[in-house]
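ok trying again, last paste got cut off:
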Amino acid sequence: MSKNRLADATSPYLQQHADNPVHWYPWGNEALDLARQQGKPILLSIGYSACHWCHVMAHESFEDLETAGIMNRLYVNIKVDREERPDLDKIYQTAHQLLARRPGGWPLTVFLTPEDQVPFFAGTYFPDHARHGLPAFRNLLRDIAQAFQDQREEIAGQNQALSEALARLNPQPPDNRKLSFEAAPLQLASQQLSESFDETWGGFGRAPKFPHPGSLNRLLRNWASLTINGKPEPRYLYQVDHTLTRMALGGVNDQLGGGFYRYSVDDRWMIPHFEKMLYDNGQLLGLYADLWQLTGKPQFRATAESTAAWVMREMQSPAGGYYSSLDADSEGHEGRFYIWTPESVRSLLTDEEYQHLAAYYGLNRAPNFEGQWHLHNFISIADLNSTLGSTSVQARALLDSARHKLFKVRELRARPSRDEKILTSWNALMIRGMARTGRILGCPQYIHSAERSLDFLRTRLWQDGRLLATHKDGRSQFPAYLDDHAYLLDALLELLQTRWRQEDLEFAIELAELLLTRFLDGNAGGFYFTADDHEKLIHRPKPFGDDSIPSGNGVAALALCRLGHLLGEGRYTAAAEGTLRIAWEQIVQAPYAYCTLLDALEEQLDPTETIVIRGMGADLERWRNRALSRYAPRRLVIAIANSEEDLPALLQTRRSEARTLAYVCSGTQCEVPIEQFDAFERRLSRTEISFNA
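nice, full thing came through this time. structure:
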């Protein structure tokens, strides 16, 4: 079969469609010019390689000769990988919501006018035959093409209204004379999240249930702030603890191989949608490490370790970069790689192992996934002991042995496909998670993994003073977006706390300067998602809310605030403050939707505690390790040997000739340097939470 224009794409998602009979084009001038020349509407299809329903629609429609013939005759067809082009995805998902009055999703199916690429009809998945209230895709294709011919005036009017609606989405500059920041949104967000908490199974809301690591982190930070200030709200810590416990024990966590799936289709975190995404695991990794640091509970450490082990084993390339995702499907069936039958398990284990594993993971219960069994914890170790007469030590040893045997056999199965794109933004989330987890758990191999990824990004995706967004098959491409710059800056600050490298600080400063010169709205404040020299599209979004990944504006505001205080650079802190000002009206209307911006707000109201430690050798390490040993989310700790030269001006003044010194500042207010270790410990205790709080 002849290939279409996707044959040369590096994206695995686009390559999956290279043999379709549809005459697909990638987004670019060739396809856009062709649509204008032929006067045909554009059919834009956006998805990603691990998306189950994208595969379903591809099999039902894009591989079907009749459907492909209709598409080729009536449309110019463009296929986009949302992970390579999040700018297009953000714009057309927003347009879908405005047109359809409901949230979008993937696959996203959008029909655009050829002259300006404005959408006039949008949907998501459409079946091959009418069902569940959705029209057959073939019929829809004909109807939309006919409407495009017959209703040009109505479409033009609708497009004008849509363009105006998109333009209004970016907020206008506030009246700074009347605006002052206050803490109310911090407390209201926690209350809103707490009210939606599932008391039985943890998490927020009902099924389908997503992990929402940013929301959990916000609850945890707010709990810490209230506790330090003598106004504890223990339910916030409990809600984070309970959620992460249920997730760790549930089927949403791969009980054999580690790593979290995308979401649970039920309230219990039992049956997941089986794709594994790098960005979920990067965020959850650091959160589990934080909970272990706070509570000392072995479950949290074990979960962080199994997640990190999965990442290094299956998701890190030989060159160092992290891959993007694992598909939900293998051999054409969702979840097939992960599921079991009692008979197959029994044949692999001793009687004792099987009895314990079957009771613990429900193999002695009714099947929970399409007539088979997906591993999900049903009873506690204590109940297991009571039922089977074993001790906790015996039960854990038998479960460990059984899991190891099942894992070895599972490794021989046909594996889900892996999307080996290396995305700057998602790598940055994992770098941060790995660095933080390695530091908290005392595991240098995790820190080394993070360094390998960072060095890969700097070597392969930093070219001529500009950052690129993706790498695959030796090609780095696409100008990087806000998220790439903001997340990577944040990851660099996390790594700098873990160990000092002069080149990492220099890289962080270069990224900060790019944020200010290429992305910052110098008039209204806040950061656009695309750079000022990016391809001109129908909208230049300035997104503030969190979704499955943190708000780029929120991460930029927090990271710039921290870097600005570290270096004494007022331009950085001013950009952070301006971001909060332009987003303020949205924040106060629905605080729970802006958790990352609330982290930045918290450090505006109660400024970042910046600790610079200067000294040499083991003593420098001792002071740094103590400063990082307890949960203190507003703290930034940088330890620099006295031998380091050519530092930025403010850091150059923070020095010690012989003994170790700690320079402690809250925002721009700095204290007398601390010379004695016991005095340093007393000062630290004022702004941190003790172990097992």
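cool. The two ends are 64 Å apart (CA to CA). The CA atoms of residues 257 and 313 lie 10 Å apart.
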